[in-house]
Amino acid sequence: MKKLLQKISNFWQHKGILRSPKSRYRQSLASGFTLIELLVAALIASVMVTIMLTFLVGVLDSDRKETVKSNAQEELQAAISYISDDLQEAIYIYGAEDLAATTGINSQLPHTQTPNTSVCNPTSNTCTPILVFWKRYTFNPDTTGTYSSPTATPTSEILGCMPYGNTTLTDCRTSNINTGRAYGRDNYTYSLVAYYLKNDDPTITGNNVSSWSQTARILRWEIKDGYVAYCSNGLAIGSPNCPATTKQTLRQVATSPYIQIGTSGVFVTDPNNYFIVPSKGFNRPDFLTAGNLATWKKFDDYDLSNTGSGSPFVTLVDFMDDTAYTTTQGGNIVADGMGIPATATAAIKIPIGKNDPITPNTNKDCNDPSVGVGTTDSVNNYTQRVPADFANTDGSNPARLTSFYACVSPKTVTARIFMRGNAIARLTSPATDRTRRIPQAGSITFFPTADVRSFGRSQVGIGKT
User: Which of 41, 152, 320, 366 would disulfide-bridge 216, Cβ 3.0–4.6 Å?
Assistant: First the structure.
């Protein structure tokens, strides 16, 4: 029995249970971490955390930049598609010489008007007209308007039902559609559209940049004719079943070659009764020849406000590239049809050279369908670049930028549009740091581009002048 107890004691001592506290303390010291070991471990952990955080921040920053580039490309493509669709309704497009001159259509556009407190004005001179064209404007037949006569019953009308007499608006749209709606009536008129490149550099004196990105943006402006009232039932305008509509008050400085109403500086009344009033200052063009369109003149009572019958500027897309033009970008020598000239050494290279100075100012690069708009007859169907001179030596490029330009063929009503955005500027808004946004070889992917060739629906005019 004594030997058995001795064996059990020796077993538990071997397992450490019956060891003395002093011996267990010495063993715990022998198996622990020293201070040096703990510091090294903490250093290694901090390095690993730093590496992981740096990697995570890099991934997030890279993802943000890729998202910005993607958004810039999508918005650019949406804008150029919108302009292309707009041009499909064009019936006449203006060439470079019409937009560079101080007279003619250029002098009638809103950026040359004074006094002018809108975003484009002669004081700051930061807006370049790129695409200016006449197009068909189609009214929605379900548009509701109000008669000018205070005794009209009912007081409002649907455009496609005018006049509907004793029927109701519901009858016109549904049950009485065969007798109420005036089938065969054209629901379109004509409008003048202008697309601008606007330089939003806030350092330019008098520049109205508002709350935009302070880079550059594309603006759209339109002035359109109204919808002349009529009576489908043969009654006279002003009768009980054909209430009186609105007449337009006009003031003009000089008469146009087509409509001659009143005398210089005198307010007159348009002889037409309008169901939908024209834009203030609109004057009907003469589509007999292109020369008449080139000398089109607005009425003097112009309105660029955002209220009433005004014709305001509308921003189509922001964050366009605001890199100032330099000759290293190319585009400053006469086009030779060979594409980008060897002198273009900058990260941005312009594939379209200058217009030929000889009449009719043709452009061989624009003639080439692989680069420009293309033409089958370079003698008669001439093409031109707008603006004619990026350096602004002839006053055709007040914005002094190259992020929006076009090749146009006025006689065939076709255009090839070029756009360039600025994704770097989207990383901060407003983008006040202008020096870091200069395109470099390593950052050119942040300047997305888009181009498209668009064809108008028809053409007018029998000659250039």
Answer: 320
